[in-house]
Design brief:
Elements lengths: L10 H24 L35 E5 L4 E5 L4 H8 L4 E3 L10 H7 L6 H4 L6 E8 L4 E4 L6 H6 L8 E12 L3 E9 L2 H14 L1 E2 L2 E2 L2 E8 L2 E10 L14 H5 L11 E9 H5 L18 H4 L9 H14 L1 H8 L5 E11 L3 H11 L5 E6 L33 E11 L8 H12 L3 E2 L9 H7 L2 H11 L8 H5 L4
Antiparallel strand pairs: 1-2, 2-6, 3-6, 4-5, 4-6, 7-11, 7-12, 8-9, 10-11, 10-14, 13-15, 13-16, 14-15
Helix pairs in contact: 6-12
């Protein structure tokens, strides 16, 4: 059956959705007013996809229980109104039946739309669709001052619209977002292209981003995995209506392991290709089942354990709970101590470097930081001139810049993701590996996401993440400092 076989939300359903949303907003505002005047504002939220320590706060949090749903989908306009705390799992479930999906769907199901906009997000459409905030048409924001303001690219709060991405809730929280959607087909045909040389991979990646094709075939999705310096892959996805067998990586098979194949299949060249197919739903969530490859730390990839591991617990949100337990009770470090080993440093980061420095950075990383595999995902700020739907009336992207995460328009970057731990060395500064990564990323004209541990000094941080622009936004939208400032929230200071 066609994915387009359902009509859009009827007027009564839309009104019901907005009425429920208004009730949720009323509860949010009531909870804001109940917080003591001089207490910091925070969300009453038990889960998080952040990997840095959160500031302890004994004051009650904001009640966001009524802000977790898709309010309405308009399949004709290809837009959706979405409450800020709605997860991408909920969002995809609401849009895919109409043959639509968000322009960028971050890899993990429990990432919220509001979280991806204020804290950035990325996925395999980012080489053509940019980052999640670039598909936002307007957003309602609860500011630190307790006002709900509607921000658009060209209204009186356009400065908040541009400054909100990468502010991590330090300017306010999204209550509602209106976003663009794009048409998707029922299946994704995959090609896993193997490379033996990182510089060849870099050149191929740059060419695919420019051409939106490879070997004469359209590329709709693009990411990659590096296992070693001489074994790396680009995974190219093409949307298709063609029915046929599909793979399933929610059971015993593991997606990232399926990427690897023997180079002997190559006909004398330095690359080889292996094919696969997934439903659009399983493609969007291909990384969530095993949290990329991080489930191996919990034994979930051991066939003897996996066979009895409940399927409902094969998802990133459950593994995150295991990480939280480890952090609370220092389980990993205690086990290392019993073996006579030092504690381990957590190195959980995503960084971006210009595409022409990708091989340089990956070679440095493989040489200096003992973590593998690592993920690659290209991105560019959206360019309406190259967008298939760039001339649509609702397309608000004009390659605008975003001051708190200043990527250059018309330039390709590559996100490099690595998530593990490394042994600490007695006598070294805390965060030695993370500090080395920060220095190298800066040397290569790159940027680092702020969802995990950071060690910048205050001046360097300001230069990298908004500087005076952020200061002015903070004065305007949180004049009484009810919310933490970005440096206090993002940087680990001991």
């Amino acid at each position: 059956m066609s994915l387009l076989g359902k009509a859009g939300h009827a007027p009564a359903a839309r009104e019901s959705g907005f009425a429920a949303h208004r009730a949720g907003v009323d509860r949010l505002l009531a909870s804001y007013r109940a917080i003591p005047e001089h207490a910091n504002i925070r969300l009453a939220k038990k889960t998080s996809n952040l990997f840095r320590a959160r500031t302890k706060n004994t004051a009650p949090g904001l009640d966001v229980s009524g802000l977790t749903k898709v309010i309405a989908v308009d399949p004709i306009a290809k837009t959706a109104d979405v409450a800020g705390m709605t997860t991408y799992e909920e969002l995809v479930a609401a849009t895919v039946p109409y043959g639509l999906a968000p322009l960028v769907v971050p890899q993990l199901k429990t990432i919220t739309l509001g979280g991806a906009v204020t804290g950035l997000g990325i996925e395999s459409t980012s080489f053509r669709n940019g980052l999640p905030h670039e598909s936002v048409l307007e957003m309602d924001v609860l500011t630190g001052a307790g006002e709900i303001l509607t921000a658009t690219p060209d209204n009186e709060h356009a400065d908040l619209f541009r400054g909100f991405p990468n502010s991590y809730g330090t300017l306010g929280y999204t209550v509602r977002l209106k976003i663009q959607l794009e048409q998707v087909r029922p299946y994704v045909a995959l090609r896993h292209v193997r490379f033996h040389d990182l510089r060849e991979l870099e050149a191929s990646l740059a060419a695919i981003v420019t051409d939106r094709s490879y070997d004469g075939e359209q590329v709709d999705y693009l990411d990659g995995v590096v296992f070693t310096a001489d074994e790396s892959y680009l995974t190219l996805g093409r949307q298709t209506d063609e029915p046929g067998p599909v793979s399933d990586y929610t059971g015993m098979e593991i997606f990232y392991q399926s990427i690897r194949h023997d180079a002997a299949a190559s006909s004398g060249g330095s690359t080889s290709i292996e094919h696969d197919r997934l439903t659009i739903h399983d493609y969007l969530w291909r990384w969530d089942t095993d949290w990329f490859w991080c489930s191996r730390a919990f034994g979930a990839q051991n066939p003897k354990i996996r066979r009895f591991w409940p399927k409902r617990y094969r998802r990133s949100s459950f593994y995150w709970k295991l990480v939280a337990l480890d952090r609370r009770y220092n389980i990993g470090d205690r086990l290392e101590a019993r073996k006579g080993n030092p504690p381990r440093e957590r190195v959980v980061q995503d960084i971006e470097v210009p595409v022409e420095r990708t091989a340089d950075f990956v070679e440095w990383f493989l040489r200096e930081i003992p973590i593998e595999p690592i993920w690659l995902c290209p991105l560019r700020l959206r360019d309406t001139g190259k967008s298939a739907e760039g001339r649509a009336a609702l397309d608000v992207s004009t390659s605008r810049t975003w001051p708190l995460y200043p990527l250059e328009p018309n330039r390709t970057y590559v996100n490099v993701g690595f998530w593990s731990t490394v042994p600490t060395v007695p006598g070294q500064r805390e965060g030695a590996a993370n500090r080395a990564i920060e220095r190298t990323v800066n040397d290569f004209d790159g940027h680092k996401s702020l969802y995990s541990d950071s060690f910048y000094d205050e001046d360097e941080f300001a230069a990298l993440y908004g500087g005076n622009t952020y200061t002015e936004l903070k004065k305007r939208y949180d004049p009484d400092q009810r919310l933490l400032d970005l440096y206090s929230k993002a940087v680990q200071r001991k």
